Amino acid sequence: MATLELDLTDPLRTFELRARLTVGAETFALVGPSGAGKSTILRHVAGLKKPAHGRIALGKDVWLDTERRVNRAPDRRSVGLVFQEYALFPHLTVAANVAFGGASPARVSELLERLHIGHLAGEKPTRLSGGERQRVAVARALGRDPQVLLLDEPLSALDAHTRTAVREELADILATLAIPTLMVTHDFLDASTLADRIGVIRDGQLHQIGRPEELTARPADAFVASLTGGNLLHGMAEGTRVTLDDGTVIEVAEPATGRVGIAVYPWEVSVSSTSPGAGNVLAGTVGSITPDRGRTRVRVGPLVAEVAHVDGLERGARAFASFAPRSARVIQ
Amino acid sequence: MATLELDLTDPLRTFELRARLTVGAETFALVGPSGAGKSTILRHVAGLKKPAHGRIALGKDVWLDTERRVNRAPDRRSVGLVFQEYALFPHLTVAANVAFGGASPARVSELLERLHIGHLAGEKPTRLSGGERQRVAVARALGRDPQVLLLDEPLSALDAHTRTAVREELADILATLAIPTLMVTHDFLDASTLADRIGVIRDGQLHQIGRPEELTARPADAFVASLTGGNLLHGMAEGTRVTLDDGTVIEVAEPATGRVGIAVYPWEVSVSSTSPGAGNVLAGTVGSITPDRGRTRVRVGPLVAEVAHVDGLERGARAFASFAPRSARVIQ
Amino acid sequence: MRAGFTALLALCLGVVLAFLAIPIVALFTEVPLGDVPGLLRDPVVQDTLKVTLRTNAIANVLILAVGTPAAYFLATRHFKGRALVITLIELPLVLPPAVAGIGLLAAFGAGGLFGGALQDQGIILPFTEWAVVLAVIFVASPFYLRQAISAFESVDPTLHDAARTLGASPARTFLRVALPLAASGLVAGWVLAFARGIGEFGATIVFAGNVRGETGTLTLTIYEQLEANFDVALSIGILLVVLSAVILLSYKLLSWRRSSSTSPTPFARSSSAPA
Amino acid sequence: MRAGFTALLALCLGVVLAFLAIPIVALFTEVPLGDVPGLLRDPVVQDTLKVTLRTNAIANVLILAVGTPAAYFLATRHFKGRALVITLIELPLVLPPAVAGIGLLAAFGAGGLFGGALQDQGIILPFTEWAVVLAVIFVASPFYLRQAISAFESVDPTLHDAARTLGASPARTFLRVALPLAASGLVAGWVLAFARGIGEFGATIVFAGNVRGETGTLTLTIYEQLEANFDVALSIGILLVVLSAVILLSYKLLSWRRSSSTSPTPFARSSSAPA
Amino acid sequence: APTVYAAASLREAFPEIDSAPRFNFAGSNQLQTQIERGAPADLFASASSTEAQALFRANRCERPVTFATNTVVMLVPAANPAKLDSIYDLKRGPQRRLAVGTAGVPIGAYTRKLLARMRLTSILSKHIVSSEPNVTSITSKVALGSADAGFAYLTDARAAGNRVKVIRLPKWAQPPVRYQACVVKRSGVDTGGANAFLNKVRSSTGRRILAKWGFGLPPR
Ligand SMILES: Nc1ncnc2c1ncn2[C@@H]1O[C@H](COP(=O)(O)OP(=O)(O)OP(=O)(O)O)[C@@H](O)[C@H]1O
Ligand SMILES: Nc1ncnc2c1ncn2[C@@H]1O[C@H](COP(=O)(O)OP(=O)(O)OP(=O)(O)O)[C@@H](O)[C@H]1O
Ligand code: MOO
Ligand SMILES: [Mg+2]
Ligand SMILES: [Mg+2]
Predict the structure, then answer these.
(1) Residue B238, Cα to own-chain centre: how many angstroms?
(2) Structurally, what CATH architecture does the domain formed by A4-225 represent?
(3) C2 pLDDT band (50/70/90 cuts)?
(4) Where is the ABC transmembrane type-1 domain (chains C, D) (predicted)?
(5) Residues of chain C contacting residue D5, judged by C-beta atoms under 8 Å apart
(6) CB proximity list for A93: less than 8 A, separation 6 or greater
(7) E129 to chain D: which residues are within 8 Å by CB?
(8) Which domains, and CATH codes, for chain D?
């Protein structure tokens, strides 16, 4: 399988997009806030937008090289693109949508079966549910037997409960495809379930690239910290001591100086009604208490904690949240 | 504070909506699949749709009584409605939107400050981010000092990472309001964070009403089980023994007979590479392995498990998922 | 081959533009432009201008005043026969103006359906200024109504609902929400209706005749003056072209400024036509 | 007071409907309907009908064939001066037909801008069928172009992108995606253009004259027969009304069937007008 | 002031006689129809006796009086692209484009009569003939060069100035072109105003102006 290489520069409205990536036979997720340039990168790869400078190649096959004035039209690049709202052709049946890219009838049936939508072949897309549409969009993109797959927020149009099922299914499909796949998402769980590597993009810049657990372990900035589910505190650091904005002093693992952010994950915070002797302690009022997936989410002052039990705690009561110094990750 | 009582019957396109509810000074969340009739109930309460039969009253104030031919116009019911896509007036500034319901300039400033959007007073809604729009919509609904607050999927238009922050903020606001609040959502975490009680609605019928932890503990049907995050297995029950469709026999806590569903929560499942001696055991291939909020999500055959560690497991390997009989909740 | 497709499209556009532009350009070559101001001061032209402005002003006020609520009703209320009503409203669009004139005569002329009753009241409509007004309303109002209905329909109904739950009465909702949001569509429709009214000939000549200072509008005068005062006719023609272009362009600029200041989707394709 | 608002709206609608319906109804009361078939067999009418159909068929084919690609180009390509081009295209809409006729004469008539060149080629346009065709194209094509541009614009551009990434060339994308999705808007525009062409009078009489069997269209004949043979004029009028109504209604029924079978949002307000 | 409905060919002369009335200039038969349909006219001035007499017979106007006469001429564009120097040129040569009044309008009737007397009726079938509803559109067709020739009144040729060239037709072939005016009968008619205007037309000043524009004058 060929490797997708891209190296792009494109001045957008408010910032310059710069992306340099190599994606092998793996799934690479682009994660970042709205307007970061995620979709734009997919459009560059598909040939729907021409960057100011750059090169895109699949193995030896050069799709774009602005220096050599190479720029293949979208229909001459072997890509499958799944659009955010799916962009199914409303005037064609499901089968005709999948066949649009040139798939033979046999191949169309095979794809529909594989995605469990064989019985919908004759329906128009407007009569389908969100999950069904998503499957049609994936089948249509695969119908061209693309050498590169692009997915723009493939799950964002789905209900919370449809989403879980479709996510697992998509994970299986991506695992068997083994072609370079670029995916855009806002959701860290989607990214970590589906992708081998994640690139965090903000203002057109790739800020951090790594496996999901690497991002969680060492969030490079406040955005990554909140994306991976962390609480964010602010304060002034002097070595391993940080004076938070509310005056509390805490210990952190890595020394730093000046204004810093501190990421603390909810599952590394304990909560009690009496002050624990050791660790970093923040006192505060108890906010919402929510059962969440076998644990309980409690907010104490600025911190959300996920704990096994919350015996004796009530909304509005005073409580203490504590965490170990090594759980306090410093963000410059 | 007056209590909102409603008792409605309304034949919709494919089913008849029947809802009977009493909501005190609390937040009640309506949760259910798309098309279940959730928004329709809010429209009934607001007076935007007239049910075929029924009565809606706020304390002694009767808003609707089809028998006595009472039907107050929406502008004569004291409701604040936050629409799913916010429905802000695009031609008015943020301040003018909030003032539309008749709030004085002082009250408008107060509301904007309270929702941290004071600096946006002069902006047009189209120039705001999703989270900012949501705040404007809430401020506008509160601007009328309503006696009933209705929220239609107030968080669904937000990014995954904006969502967490806005959810906590909204929880604080709802906690201080203390008026009957009806909220629609697709997301169980939203519902359990914001609501005191949850009503699960499907095909126009309220299938289960209870506090979040009650729903998790005893899901009344397959929908509630998957909503609260459970895995769903199917099989034939004979007493406390259930033969699953793949032939595996498991033990459950409550006796039953005939075809049943079994809900198993991921956090009550363990995974190992060798068969554990005790409990219910399902063998299968390892699917995706995903770090998720301090734990690891692993799929083994039909089950997703959330475990602390997955030492020695790899995608595609054979593994065993096990759970205690009391974790196997029977669903008729 | 693929460059060929775009070239083909561009070629078609070129043909269209050339064909539509040439007659307009040619118009300007026919008349000594320096004489136009003088010719327009001709008392015949002055009379004509007055009649045209007066009758069209009345007609447009009536179209806007009665047509706007009617369009709002049709856009927001659903009742049986609505499709038929809309077809009826659109019928004058596809009716040859002369036939419209005959119809108006048949309805309001002496011996017409209502002509007798009106005459008994001392009201004579045909061949008076009011006949011009009626003719203009009949041929021009469907342009406005059609666009107004679709402008009101494209106002998100949840905004309407939002206004109601915020305590606004139906009338206030109409004034504060529907009207401002439909405004640009309404103006687009009005521009068309106005233009159609100014250019109206067929129904007017049949129903109102060409009485100088009474029913003789600019368009009628053009036909009348074609023979003798060809230059006067041309000057009026040029006046009308310039007037039309100014109206169209200023409307475009207006709606362009509006949309560029409030557009929710900065990358939405800029809408070309007052659709 | 609040019931009053709806009543006011309904009243306005009633006034509009009454006013637009009365002339059409009156038209039918004027002529002994039984005689209409006989009158329409009159050789003058037969000639006229043939001329009308022939010239309009040619004009409409040209409008569709050249206008559709031109509209697609304008709807999907962005270039400087695009707004100006669109204004130019809309200008004939607001141009009095007589002025349009003068413009056409000034451009293509003997002694006109291109008249000499054409004459050298042995081509004389005025008083020929081709003059009618040109006049019809000039006045009717903007109706089609305008609607076609907005129909193509309202096709979701991501569908276009989707087709391209699925390997479709620009031409195939146009044929398989843009054209079918814009179809109902195109037909709506074409209905308007067709109707405008059939009813065309001013530009035709000035530019093409009224030559029986050559340039004498139905509308010209109505004017001609208005004094001489009023019943013939009326019969043609009725023929045109019925024709117009049939075209409008069949278009409505067509688009209604389409939309009711594929409508994505069952509760979307039913769109009234071919907007 | 009265409302005067007058034949299109009177468009220059009448306002010069008195600019006070409201004028409606069109084909005489068109005006006749309008008056029959209730148009609020006070005086009707027709380019032939047919229309005025028809109204008189229908008791819609007083007895018509003849106030002017006219002459039918052939007009060609100033540039004369078809090189027509006489009406007989139309018997020969290629097909030409002619603007001729419809049979229903006075000028059309006169033209046909004249051609019949000259035994030239065949030219109406030999050439391409545009039927025009009134003299205005005949002269404009010639003036704009879309017709190679047209038949109209001498008076129109004067009004059209240097854009057209007049080709006189033999006197012996001329039909009697009699302009007749009558005061309309209807409720609310301004009889006084109508008669006053008619008298002005028939006064010596009126006759002088008519003559100036090329009309012939009936004996007093
Ligand atoms: N054709 C263009 N020219 C210039 N700027 C553009 C263009 N298209 C998009 N932009 C800008 O580029 C930025 C990135 O847009 P993009 O659609 O790639 O964001 P995104 O990361 O996909 O956001 P979202 O999560 O909302 O989909 C935006 O700020 C947008 O304003
Ligand atoms: N005015 C109406 N008349 C008849 N049926 C209706 C009407 N409005 C909605 N329905 C139907 O009622 C059902 C419930 O619609 P509703 O909008 O309340 O669903 P919902 O639960 O809010 O769904 P979602 O989560 O997608 O917003 C739908 O199946 C819809 O088809
Ligand atoms: O009535 Mo006329 O003057 O022959 O057109
Ligand atoms: Mg995007
Ligand atoms: Mg809903």
Answers:
(1) 34
(2) 3-Layer(aba) Sandwich (3.40)
(3) low
(4) 49-251
(5) 169-171, 174
(6) A121, A122, A123, A124
(7) 211-212
(8) 37-260 (1.10.3720.10)
